[in-house]
Amino acid sequence: MEEFSGATATSIIQEFYINMLLSNLVSLIKNDADEEIDITFKSSNKFRYQANHAFIIGRI
Q1: What is the Cα–Cα distance from 54 to 60, expressed in whole angstroms?
Q2: Distance separating alpha carbons of residues 15 and 26, to the nearest angstrom
Q3: Would you say 27 and 33 are in contact if contact means Cβ atoms under 8 Å apart?
Q4: What is the C-alpha separation between 51 and 33, in angstroms, rounded?
Q5: How far apart are CA 16 and CA 4, in angstroms?
Q6: What is the pLDDT of residue 31?
Q7: pTM higher than 0.85
Q8: How much is the pLDDT for 1?
Q9: Residue 52 DSSP code
Q10: Residue 15 contacts residue 6 (beta carbons within 8 Å)
Q11: Cα–chain center distance at 51
Q12: How far apart are CA 47 and CA 38, in angstroms?
């Protein structure tokens, strides 16, 4: 969170808010995907599956 590519204060603020937006969108998508996984969960599965956070970021 401390590494910014912008040179001016405005570009750093814009980059911060873009990162926050992306993070919030990914969290919403991950929560929705995890709910869908829980709905289709089979009791015979040994592990609880979760959506991959890095994969979601890459797809957005």
Answers
A1: 10
A2: 16
A3: no
A4: 6
A5: 8
A6: 93
A7: no
A8: 53
A9: -
A10: yes
A11: 10
A12: 12
